[in-house]
Design a protein that fits this description.
α1 packs antiparallel against α2 and α3 runs antiparallel to α4. The protein is about 75% helix and about 0% strand. The chain is an all-alpha fold.
Length: about 200
């Protein structure tokens, strides 16, 4: 008899997307060190690697069915740690607008508090970034790469239009997050309130 092919959950490679996300988390420390010491070229290289890994782990998870709740959380945490750290240090070094760093950090802080509130009041949360949120993350990465390319003396123009685009996407995606998850929270609480005793989960 022919041996059955391993399923996605049994594959020895199923943890690869999580490992790539963890690598992105670990890259935050050397990237911060390089930015702080104005080693722009090396920082650019590592940020580019981190950005590429973000697309790679998502592709592997979707294509091979290796998605997991842990993977979703690791991916979100890695993105937010990297972006917040880069924007804060660049703003401190006066290489990015302070107001933009405040907007980026404020949005991500609000999302983190919302996720914590959901976990405490309702239950486990499954990260589901919207297309608007993905566009916001992509715009932030492109903005950082543009800034670092200019600092590394590549022939790239630093446009304030891109900074404003990042700001608009941050505000729009943050507002969408609040409206969407507030509605979901109301539905979850309302459903639990109407359920007979013993029928609630969690």
């Amino acid at each position: 008899m022919t041996a059955a092919m391993p399923t996605a959950s049994q594959s020895p490679w199923r943890h690869l997307p999580n490992a790539i996300s963890m690598l992105r988390v670990l890259l935050v420390v050397p990237i911060c060190w390089l930015l702080w010491h104005e080693q722009w070229s090396l920082a650019l290289l590592l940020v580019a690697v981190a950005g590429a890994s973000d697309g790679l782990d998502g592709f592997l998870a979707r294509h091979y069915g290796w998605q997991s709740r842990l993977g979703g959380i690791l991916d979100a945490v890695a993105d937010k740690l990297l972006l917040i750290a880069c924007f804060v240090i660049l703003a401190w070094r006066q290489e990015a607008p302070v107001w933009l760093a405040v907007i980026v950090c404020g949005r991500d802080g609000m999302i983190a508090l919302g996720a914590l509130g959901w976990r405490v009041l309702i239950g486990p949360i499954e990260p589901r970034p919207s297309l608007l949120s993905k566009a916001c993350t992509l715009a932030q990465i492109i903005y950082l790469l543009t800034v670092l390319l200019a600092l590394a003396h590549w022939p790239v123009l630093r446009s304030s239009v891109l900074a404003w685009l990042v700001a608009v996407l941050c505000v729009a995606s943050g507002a969408h997050y609040v409206l969407y998850w507030s509605h979901r929270a109301w539905q979850a609480r309302h459903t639990n309130a109407l359920s007979p005793p013993g029928s609630r989960l969690g």
